[in-house]
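Worked example

This section walks through a single chain of length 214. The input is the sequence exactly as stored; nothing has been trimmed or padded.
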Amino acid sequence: MNVKFTKRILTGALAVALVMAPSVGAFAKTTTSATAPSTTVVETVAPVVVNPFKAVATTSAVAGVKSEVAGAYLLQKGVGVAITSNVAAIGEAYGFAKGETPFVKVFDMDVKKSDKAKASLDGVALAYGGTNVAYIDMEIGKMTNGHYTLLPNGAGIAATFSIPKEAVDVNAKYAVVRVVAGGEFKLLEDTDSNPETISFVTTGGAAAYSIVKY
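Given that input, the structure is written out below as tokens.
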């Protein structure tokens, strides 16, 4: 299937709230997730509280390419994440003040706790004739004097995910689905030729992501 960059609104009332806050020794997350396209769900979402958050000097690498952006890359299910836009370019695009730096939080999605988000991502994949092979929660924000805040949707930010080894197929095509609060989603096409990775352009903020195999 020829996957095109698209922007649609899922049918039904979708609510995806991805909130990742620090905890002792780990990063906790609270997810109020989206429903499948044909289902209407009314949910109560707790207020989002942004707490002080110290920078973590770690990066991730995909196919030998190291992420340009520091952050919390807490991934254990065979998917690597690299933000390939450089720090200066992100800062210029989002109007960073002196001393502000981009910061990423990325986790393996807990599909049991985020079952509605998974259902939404699966619904999008199915609509395009594909199957999801991985699920990721990712935030792109910034650090200001040790305080973390989310970036808004805005300028494009280049990223690369590694495809889980068991899902790699040189004869298949891949894309990424991004679902945000309110149910808006984008299908992001692969821009690289490596069968083991998928490169795409996303934007700031929090979202649920999946890797779609066709």
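What to look for: Residues 115-127 form the longest helix (13 residues).
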